[in-house]
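Quick one:
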Amino acid sequence: MLKKSRSLKAAFIGAVSALALSASVANAEMLELEKEELKFGFIKLTDMAPLAVAYEKGFFEDEGLFVTVEPQANWKVLLDRVIDGELDGAHMLAGQPLGATIGFGTQSHIITAFSMDLNGNAITVSNDIWDKMKPHIPKQADGKPVHPIKADALKPVIEEFKDEGKPFNMGMVFPVSTHNYELRYWLAAGGIHPGFYSETDISGQIQADALLSVTPPPQMPATMEAGTIYGYCVGEPWNQQAVFKGIGVPVVTDYEIWKDNPEKVFGVSNKWAEENPNTHLAVVKAMIRAAMWLDENNNANRKEAVEILSRSEYVGADAEVIANSMTGTFEYEKGDKRDVPDFNVFFRYNATYPYYSDATWYLTQMRRWGQITEAKPDSWYHDIAKKVYRPDIYLKAAKMLVDEGKAKAKDFPFDNDGFREPQTHFIDNIVYNGRTPNAYLEKFSIGLKGKQQVKGTEVADAK
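Output:
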């Protein structure tokens, strides 16, 4: 179903045009747009919220943009439609522009100048698996599990499956998804091998203790309920949906795996960006304003955001389910609702800034699991990050908003060089420094490093 702009271009004729544009030009001249009518794609997840809000609150229209937003069947269809020009841009997985640009899967130069959110995912297991895990999880004084729950508690369950000759199947949403890398990171931190990719085997299941495969987000709960998978990593509302349906238990959030990790980005083809530079700036301006609205006044607007997202043309899940995570709480086991104020972050902590170090982290995980098959120097990681992530465009849009009086300069990292300081908040306490990706890879006991390559089913040093 399409969601069309409330005002069509034809309505902006004569006096109507003057009235509609007057508010926009009060503080600044409108950008000279190369293209005004745009179509954007998204997947039905709560972190598409900046797109929905930019549309519903009129931020796109303030920039002279006439936007249609359209849900897509899956991440591959969404990417393909951006590449072939059917979509002008889309809500994308943070790793998607990187994967496309380096040629893992579909080859195409995709860029992002806007990070859509931080956090927002979780790992859920079925009730049966949860019952098997519980004896291995420390308890609080009130009997509730101590969080974060580590994959150490899942390891004996997987070993039991192995002893019985049964595969342990888990779902994630796409091979270059944040969910794939977060699930792999959590499993490996608990001594569970999530499997390698190779040039000839892109299943990602070489040497795997847990077999990870792709399942579209909205289908996760039903697939687990059917017994096809025993757990999954997905964004909201599909973890909370498992709780509401009584079929599973979210055991850990990505906030607990990597605190304030980047989750989705807004992606466009590099060709489109070069042909439509002013239009691109206008889009980024509108989405920055949407992100600000989502987080302002201590998340005061989240209830309205929940109502918007619950509509069928957006996420289409019950408002109560969406609110469980969007309003600062998260429910793990039924009745175990805890305060997680930063489960969804859209603007604070420079959430919208596309950091080179974030891009580099995803590239390290692609290398760690064999999607990048050969050793690369640190300079290669940084060159790809700078080719795909575009803070220069972001900061230009941010400065325009500051000059227009619609944003404050202190809220943007104008003096940043694109790299975060070394990050310490990982579930395994390993420090990540985006400036030294190869040294980072050396720290892991499970995963490729140095000159290692996967040949057949074995790992060997390249000669």
